[in-house]
Specification:
14 strands, Rossmann fold, alpha/beta, 6-stranded parallel beta sheet
């Protein structure tokens, strides 16, 4: 089978869509399929093109059996609502001729486009039609809804026009998948035929990410006192997460000398968070860790933190949750009680209201002071990951077309 994938984010990006698209493409290649990926140079979550790549040039690579065509993209130094739109459009335009050329010359059996960006969907659908291929739209993030509901873009008549165009294009695909039950419900509200819908959840490599018994080498290298209880946030530092609450948490547990917060990652919010955290001795910032250190990083945590801003909880399903649970450590999430995230986290941790720092502090201290409960919840999370998110099981199910 020949598979053509269009995704602005891809390997070697370590978080979010790039990570999952990279793992999926390499898994398909390992199964013996011909895989072509049309993508941008790596830039996320730092919003800076990685060393060895150029934002203004096309480049072809062969990695792990996958043919990767990098297309030019404009990366804004300070992304805002308007500059993000220009950024996404720049990739949609530069990738268009490549998608059409591959459709006509390689004749793929499947054309899959990853959203965001929604701007790439018309050309992906057209490419599938030209090739006589199965067309597949996979939604990792309802970017249009999130942009308006989080006030990244202003409400008004523009929203109605954009949503109308989005629905029109979505309905043309043979399959429309997304990563949670709540997100499937949103597809229904957009008028997508239930027969075309498919639940394609993110996954975890349960062999690569698993509880570590004994000494954690990364913890020693970071000079983290063995007596410290570590609260870990790892991943993108963007506006959808509501990460300011973590600084409030650090302030709220200052009286506990046994608790330290580690914030590991990069993104547009990191400079602001570092500014807000000035003078706090119990919060430490780390860069993103390479994949071969990810398991050690996740196992540093006594508790994983999963903040989400109110209004965004069911527009996305945080990709980092799969690895959090696989590590066998409890999770505390700041989400609404009736959200998809809450339904999972309640099995393996605690759910508190978004923007309620006092409640978050109470939940943290309650788990820190009850190690038996923490261990029990962490083990429950590991079992959930094994039963629901094992990499091979998820991907085999998705690619029975």
């Amino acid at each position: 089978m020949k598979v053509l994938i269009n995704s602005i984010n891809y390997w070697p990006e370590l978080t979010g869509i790039g990570k999952y698209t990279g793992e999926m493409a390499e898994w398909l290649a390992a199964q013996g399929h011909d895989v072509y990926v049309v993508t941008a140079p790596p830039y996320y979550p730092a919003w800076k093109v990685a060393e060895g790549y150029r934002s203004s040039a096309y480049k072809t690579e062969q990695v792990a059996g996958v043919t990767i065509i990098r297309c030019p993209v404009w990366v804004p130094p300070s992304p805002t609502g308007l500059t993000r739109i220009i950024h996404l459009l720049s990739f949609a335009m530069s990738s268009m001729p490549v998608m059409l050329w591959l459709a006509l010359t390689k004749r793929p059996d499947v054309v899959q486009v990853i959203e965001p960006p929604v701007a790439c969907t018309p050309v992906a659908w057209l490419s599938a039609k030209l090739a006589g291929a199965f067309s597949w739209l996979h939604i990792q993030d309802f970017e249009v809804d999130a942009a308006f509901e989080l006030n990244i873009l202003p409400e008004g008549p523009v929203r109605k026009v954009v949503e109308m165009i989005e629905r029109f294009i979505m309905r043309r695909f043979d399959r429309v998948s997304t990563i949670s039950e709540k997100m499937l419900e949103r597809l229904v509200s957009k008028g997508i035929d239930p027969a075309k819908q498919f639940l394609f959840e993110n996954w975890t490599d349960i062999d690569a990410i698993q509880p570590i018994a004994g000494i954690n080498k990364l913890g020693l290298e970071l000079n983290i006192d063995a007596d410290k209880k570590v609260l870990l946030y790892s991943g993108n530092m963007g506006k959808k997460q509501g990460l300011e609450i973590l600084v409030e948490l650090a302030k709220g547990v200052q009286h506990r000398e046994d608790i330290i917060l580690l914030l590991c990652g990069d993104g547009v919010m990191r400079p602001e968070l570092e500014h807000l955290a000035q003078g706090l001795s119990n919060i430490q910032f780390l860069p993103l860790q390479p994949m071969d250190r990810l398991n050690e990083l996740l196992n540093i945590a006594d508790i994983h933190l999963l903040p989400q801003r109110a209004g965004a909880e069911d527009l996305v399903m945080p990709s980092k949750l799969t690895n959090m649970l696989s590590s066998g450590k409890p999770v505390i999430a700041t989400v609404g009680q009736n959200t998809q995230v809450a339904s999972v986290v309640k099995l393996c941790g605690a759910v508190v209201s978004p923007d309620n720092a006092a409640q978050l502090c109470q939940a943290v201290i309650a788990l820190i002071d009850d190690p038996e409960k923490s261990a029990r919840l962490g083990a429950a999370g590991r079992r959930y990951a094994e039963q629901n998110w094992e990499l091979n099981a998820v991907l085999h199910k998705a690619f029975v077309l």
